[in-house]
Amino acid sequence: MKKIIVILTLIALFVGVLGGCANSKDKGKPKKIVVGASITPHAEILEVAKGVLESKGFELEIKEYNDYVQPNVALDAGDLDANYFQHQPYLDQFNADRDMDLVSVAIIHYEPFGVYPGKTKSIEELKDGAEISIPNDGTNEARALLLLEAQGLIKLADGVGMEATVIDIVENPKNLVIHEIEAAQLARSLQDVDLAVINGNFAIQAGLNVAKDAIAVEDKDSVAAETYGNVIAVRKGDENREEIKALVEALKSDEVKEFIDSTYEGAVVPKF
């Protein structure tokens, strides 16, 4: 019996020593943060933040996505600590549609929407029945229609604002044919349509610059500029995690601001 007690005591001590060694090793490891992002500009901006985080003892893993659905699904499932690709209206709509509870912890930048030329090179040259492609997701569709209205191409029903869809068009003097397509496909549609209203990140990804290539751009003082800042989203309850606070601080650093200003030339505008 005594022999058994001695053996059990030795095993307990051995396990305790191993546990202590493991803990001591863990203390030296950087804390990992996994963030989902659109390829451009979000993942590129995160690469700059990665260096800032490393200096503070954090390891950033960036997972790139080509659509606007999977980054939120992955975040809700716990596969990500945060994501960075969307604006608040889109996040609000996604939560409502999917019964999720994701929250924003910071606004990082704004990407102006632009109208880009396809088969027609200017708004003035648009012919009767011309074709225009716009994003098909709710909040971005409204934003695109408001930009077309600002150019005098259509008129929307009074008061629809950010809820506008194509059925809210009450005046269309040029009988424009408006195609609602997935945002990621808008740049590719340019060869088939007269004009396209393209989200900032997908325009950049396609090699387009809103300041140089767009023939009409959202006003920097517009409602859209204040409403559509791109945010860092997390699961509700994670807002005050040390890693999330460090991520936000890194993305609002001088290094990131300088990178955005010098790289995107007005196609991405810091909001900090």
Give keywords:
six-stranded mixed beta sheet, 13 strands, alpha/beta, D-Maltodextrin-Binding Protein, domain 2, 11 helices, 42% helix
What structural class do helix, strand and pairing data support? alpha/beta
Q: How many structural domains are formed by the residues?
A: 2
Low-confidence stretches: 6-26
Radius of gyration: 24 Å
Describe the overall structure.
α2 packs across α10 and α2 (39-54) runs antiparallel to α11. With 272 residues, the protein is α/β, with parallel strands linked by helices. The radius of gyration is 24 Å and the shape is elongated. Residues 6-26 have low confidence and may be disordered. The relative contact order is 0.19. It folds into 2 domains: 30-111 and 228-270, D-Maltodextrin-Binding Protein, domain 2 (3-Layer(aba) Sandwich); 114-218, D-Maltodextrin-Binding Protein, domain 2 (3-Layer(aba) Sandwich), CATH 3.40.190. A 6-stranded mixed beta sheet has the order 2-1-3-12-4-13, sandwiched between helices. A 5-stranded mixed beta sheet has the order 9-6-10-5-11. A two-stranded antiparallel ribbon has the order 7-8. α2 links the parallel β1 (31-38) and β2. It has helices at residues 2-28, 39-54, 70-77, 88-98, 138-150, 186-189, 200-205, 210-213, 223-227, 242-251, 254-264; strands spanning 31-38, 58-65, 82-87, 102-110, 114-117, 131-135, 155-156, 169-171, 177-181, 195-198, 216-217, 229-235, 269-270.
